């Protein structure tokens, strides 16, 4: 699959400084070190990113065992949170919200949301903007929506994943290099094998999108093989003929339960459909997380991924002709 890969190292972003003090971890009896980071959003199993690193580091400082400080809220981190909650007579659900975060000394009362205004480069006609701010293979994803009173932060600080090798500007990336293309891109309109247009597709149920939905069907093959005329288009082929870099959509039932097409290197002027052009990008989607056998989220091979709940909320907000993605 083009948009899935193994977990990589999490890097820290502005607003979070983690400097965990080395302690002998024995399970809750160690003296607490000074707080060196804060969080402002609830963290739970499946969360990823710098806020999870903060939780994990603080657990270590407090004498609990969250596993590696990898920014992935998996079973070991959940167990450590539950142990901490029990030690403080809190409701032991393994979720770090305001009460548990305050007890840990890391909950911030200062909002961490960005200014509710689109970044530079977004057209004045935009009505919705998905801002993806990457740090390594993890990302903070914010949904900005313009209403009668101006721009609002409709959904902020959503944990996301990007390419296993981070983000690289579209002009210098290449298909298969493990990066997500950086830049400002529209919600793309594509053509299905039967000739109908769509912006959203999936193997699951339409979550209520406001554009054209394509239900994945037998033979749906997204061509990612470079230097062919059908590069970065959806065609009909038998599964046995959709091989190599190409993606047979019906085989990706989880991550592609619902998805939006990000307009990176799409349209008639896309680069890579001729032998003399660099293959910049193909099969770049906004889709659901992929998971390891332990429940940790995986980076992608070039897409942007979210939890199913956040994904559905974003997909329902996007309007063709108004929706843009800023990936940086």
Structural summary, described in words:
The protein is α/β, with parallel strands linked by helices. The protein has 2 domains: 112 residues, Muramoyl-pentapeptide Carboxypeptidase, domain 1, CATH 1.10.101.10; 200 residues, no CATH class. The chain contains 4 helices and 16 strands. A 6-stranded mixed beta sheet has the order 3-2-1-16-5-4, with helices on one face. A 5-stranded mixed beta sheet has the order 9-8-13-14-15. It has a 3-stranded antiparallel beta sheet with strand order 11-10-12, with no helix packed on it. Helix 1 packs across helix 2. It is globular, with a radius of gyration of 21 Å. The protein starts with 49 loop residues before the first helix and ends with a strand.
Query: How large is the share of residues in beta strands?
Result: 15-25%
Helix content: 10-25%
Mean pLDDT: 88
Rg (C-alpha, Å):
21 Å
Précis, in short:
The protein has 328 residues and is an alpha/beta fold. The chain folds into 2 domains: 112 residues, Orthogonal Bundle (Muramoyl-pentapeptide Carboxypeptidase, domain 1); 200 residues, no CATH class.
Task: Walk me through the topology.
Blueprint: H1 50-62, H2 75-87, H3 98-104, E1 128-135, E2 138-147, E3 150-161, E4 167-169, E5 180-186, E6 190-191, E7 197-198, E8 200-202, E9 213-215, E10 220-222, E11 234-236, E12 247-248, E13 259-261, E14 285-288, E15 304-306, H4 308-317, E16 323-327
Parallel strand pairs: 1-16, 4-5, 8-9, 14-15
Antiparallel strand pairs: 1-2, 2-3, 5-16, 6-7, 8-13, 10-11, 10-12, 13-14
């Amino acid at each position: 699959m083009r948009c899935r890969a193994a977990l990589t190292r999490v890097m820290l972003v502005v607003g979070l400084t983690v400097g965990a003090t080395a302690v002998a971890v024995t399970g809750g009896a160690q003296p607490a070190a000074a707080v060196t980071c804060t969080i402002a959003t609830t963290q739970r199993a499946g969360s990823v990113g710098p806020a999870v690193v903060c939780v994990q580091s603080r657990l270590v400082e407090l004498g609990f065992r969250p596993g590696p400080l990898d920014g992935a809220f998996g079973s070991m981190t959940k167990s450590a949170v539950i142990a901490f909650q029990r030690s403080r007579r809190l409701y032991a659900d393994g979720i770090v919200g305001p009460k548990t975060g305050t007890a840990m000394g890391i909950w911030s009362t200062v909002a961490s949301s960005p200014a509710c205004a689109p970044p530079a480069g977004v057209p004045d006609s935009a009505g919705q903007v998905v801002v993806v701010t990457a740090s390594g293979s993890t990302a903070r994803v914010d949904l900005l929506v313009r209403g009668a009173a101006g721009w609002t932060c409709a959904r902020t600080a959503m944990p996301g994943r990007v390419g296993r090798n981070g983000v690289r500007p579209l002009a210098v990336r290449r298909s298969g290099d493990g990066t997500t293309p950086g830049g400002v891109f529209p919600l793309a309109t594509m053509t299905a094998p039967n000739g109908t247009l769509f912006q959203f597709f999936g193997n699951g149920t339409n979550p209520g999108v406001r554009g054209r939905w394509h239900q994945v069907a037998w033979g749906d093959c997204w061509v990612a093989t470079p230097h062919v005329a059908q590069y970065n288009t959806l065609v009909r082929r038998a599964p046995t003929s959709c091989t190599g870099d190409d993606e047979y959509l019906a085989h990706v039932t989880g991550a592609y339960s619902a998805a939006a097409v990000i307009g990176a290197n799409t349209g008639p002027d896309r680069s890579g459909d001729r032998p003399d052009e660099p293959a910049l990008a193909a099969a770049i989607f906004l889709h659901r997380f992929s998971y390891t056998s332990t429940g940790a989220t995986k980076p992608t091979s070039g897409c942007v991924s979210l939890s199913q709940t956040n994904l559905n909320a974003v997909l329902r907000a996007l309007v063709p002709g108004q929706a843009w993605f800023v990936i940086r």
